[in-house]
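User: quick one, sequence for these tokens?
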């Protein structure tokens, strides 16, 4: 990458995209394989591999949704995206998803397949529930087995190749004493996939939509495990606040065991072991 578009460039990008209206063509910045390429809505919609798919249980909109899409692997693969790296997805609102390279490059129907959905200026998508804007200009959607457990970032501004999060922020890593099948290590993977998109951990992370879960005090020190588990499952069941954006995580996305493993990871990191 250098994972990142510079702060100035990113700020300009957000400003430009935020100013686009439904009648304008959006621009997607892709920084992969050591090169940066911009794609307009029109360029993406005119590709030979463009198609339509219907998502029966869409994660952005209630019910089903039909999208015009191109395979994400066909966009980033030819640019040199590495399976061992991460595709960092920057949204207009500051949400930052970290998608494993091997997942976004997958084309086998035995595993989830990622598509880049493109909002056409001629046929804009409806506003998101409770919001004044749509999920556009770009969304990553998935088909195939366990697709619902993937990240579905919307209002995408840029795609950037980066080393895995634990390499960029060593404070995320668990120690070598933690086995590959240990719940703590599994919790680390889940944390990066589902929590890291909004929260930092002890200063690690690119998003700051939600509070840092490690500083100034670890979340596991001011939440009892049962209460923290309920907060992750559905924050509105524990407490609510103006402007809350944290969504619930149904069992189809995070099982009770998954949430327990995330808490085990956060507890481990709060103890300072392996750091």
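Assistant:
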């Amino acid at each position: 990458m250098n994972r990142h578009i510079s702060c100035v460039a990113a700020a300009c990008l957000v400003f430009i995209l935020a100013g686009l209206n439904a009648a304008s063509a959006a621009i997607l910045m892709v920084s992969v394989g050591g090169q940066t390429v911009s794609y307009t809505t029109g360029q993406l919609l005119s590709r030979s591999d463009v198609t339509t798919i219907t998502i029966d249980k869409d994660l952005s909109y209630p019910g089903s949704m039909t999208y015009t899409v191109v395979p994400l692997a066909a966009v980033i693969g030819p640019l040199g995206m590495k399976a061992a790296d991460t595709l960092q997805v920057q949204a207009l609102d500051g949400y930052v998803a970290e998608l494993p390279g091997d997942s976004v490059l997958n084309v086998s129907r035995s595993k989830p397949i990622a598509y880049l959905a493109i909002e056409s200026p001629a046929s804009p998508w409806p506003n998101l529930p409770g919001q004044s804007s749509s999920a556009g200009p770009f969304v990553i959607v998935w088909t195939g087995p366990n697709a619902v457990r993937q990240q579905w970032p919307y209002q995408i501004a840029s795609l950037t190749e980066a080393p895995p999060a634990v390499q960029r922020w060593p404070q995320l890593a668990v120690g070598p004493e933690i086995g590959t099948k240990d719940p703590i290590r599994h919790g680390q993977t889940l944390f990066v996939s589902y929590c890291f998109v909004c929260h930092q951990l002890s200063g690690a992370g690119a998003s700051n939509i939600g509070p840092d879960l490690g500083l100034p005090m670890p979340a596991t020190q001011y939440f009892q495990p049962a209460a923290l588990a309920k907060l992750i499952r559905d924050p509105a069941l524990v407490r609510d606040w103006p402007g809350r954006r944290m969504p619930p995580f149904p069992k189809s996305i995070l099982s009770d065991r998954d949430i327990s493993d995330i808490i085990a990871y956060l507890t481990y990191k709060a103890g300072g072991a392996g750091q």
